[in-house]
Amino acid sequence: MHDLLLRALKSEPLERPPVWLMRQAGRYMPEYRKLRERYSLETLFHTPDLSSEVTLQPVEILGVDAAILFSDILVIAEVFGLTLSFPDKGGPRIEPALKTAADVDALTPQKDLSYVFTAIRQLKTQLQVPLIGFAGGPFTVASYMIEKGKALSWIQEDPTSFHRLLALLTEVTISYLKEQIYAGVDLVQVFDSWANLLDEAQFHTFSLPYLQQIVQAIQPLAPVILFCRNSSLRHESLSSIAPSALSFDWHLPMHTLRKLVPSSIAIQGNFPPEFLHSTPDHIQQGVEELLRSMKGQRGWIVNLGHGVTPDTPVDHVRHFVACIQNNV
Ligand code: CP3
Question: What's the chain look like in SS3?
């Protein structure tokens, strides 16, 4: 297997850094849009042949150094028998929404997401690059399960039941990630995307301890990359739970982050998604500058600071990947 990503996670010296992109499969790709004309997002996620096909698209079209399973962090709600949908407007919806502490206490894990594990097994027979599995951070998933916009007031009004929900989600997430690893994923990324909504004290109470439990349970089995929005503002707290890697936004340069984060933790990032909207020449120049500033540094995975946006030109993304891979 092409193992550049796994070696970067171990901070081995490399000929060049590996590159993959968050949301590397998706609407900016004509091949993906063609499938979406025929199938709903729900169908793509639930049908192993289709989710495998979408997972492979960026590997074939862009030549990235890793595949990320085509699924969503919110499918985990189905474990509790809840329904996930993606209406055209207003973002993903999980129903019925949690409204009271009694709703939390009534949640019981009852389904396993076997379609995800089937897709993973299928992909592993076809891929030459590592396959990344993933899950959402408990706080982020909880905020989608609770009535829209009510998560922060729930924390204020009834922290005890909020902690019960987070503990339950942590337990289910650990089992889900373990099953992904048993099915064949080579590493996982945990997306606590919305943890940036929490203030410092809340972050230390309602996000970090649960992320730490996940890291401790999963890391003996496979590397764990941790992603939060604005992670560079919290590099110290996030480093304290010692994931294999931290995924960073673009607020601080990578070479500064490399100095701030202990060398035992790899770092991932950090071009702004808008960078891929500029001209091919400018993209090449930006890549060259970054590679120069990181020369000789170990434990670095090239990525964006957040996902590829739907209006990004595919040619620019392909050019970006090629610039990283060809500029030794
Ligand atoms: O990165 C990849 O290519 C793998 C697939 C992936 C999806 N969602 C597919 C998806 C991953 C890793 C996710 C994670 C995810 N999902 C996060 C964490 C990462 C982040 O962006 O902060 C969150 C918060 C979600 C929840 C979610 N799913 C939202 C908010 C939306 C709607 C917004 C949007 O971009 O349309 C989704 C839908 C979704 N999940 C799409 C994709 C490709 C939209 C595609 C479509 O409509 O065809």
Answer: CCCHHHHHHCCCCCCCCCECCCCCCCCCCHHHHHHHHHCCHHHHHHCHHHHHHHHHHHHHHHCCCCEECCCCHHHHHHHHCCEEECCCCCCCEEECCECCHHHHHCCCCCCCCHHHHHHHHHHHCCCCCCEEEEEECHHHHHHHHECCCCHHHHHHHCHHHHHHHHHHHHHHHHHHHHHHHHHCCCEEEEECHHHHHCCHHHHHHHCHHHHHHHHHHHCCCCCEEEECCCHHHHHHHHHHCCCCEEECCCCCCHHHHHHHCCCCCEEEEEECHHHHHCCHHHHHHHHHHHHHHCCCCCCEEEEECCCCCCCCCHHHHHHHHHHHHHCC
> Which residues have C-beta atoms less than 6 Å from ligand 1?
22-27, 36, 41, 68, 70, 72-74, 86, 91-92, 134, 191, 193, 307
pLDDT band at 1 (very low <50, low <70, confident <90, very high): confident
Ligand 1 pocket: which of 20, 21, 23, 231 to mutate (most atoms <8 Å of CB)?
23
pLDDT digits (tens, 9 = 90+) for 229-273: 999 999 999 999 999 999 999 999 999 999 999 999 999 999 999
Mean pLDDT of the chain: 97
Q: Average pLDDT of 15-22?
A: 97
Going by alpha carbons, the residue nearest to atom 8 of ligand 1 is: 72
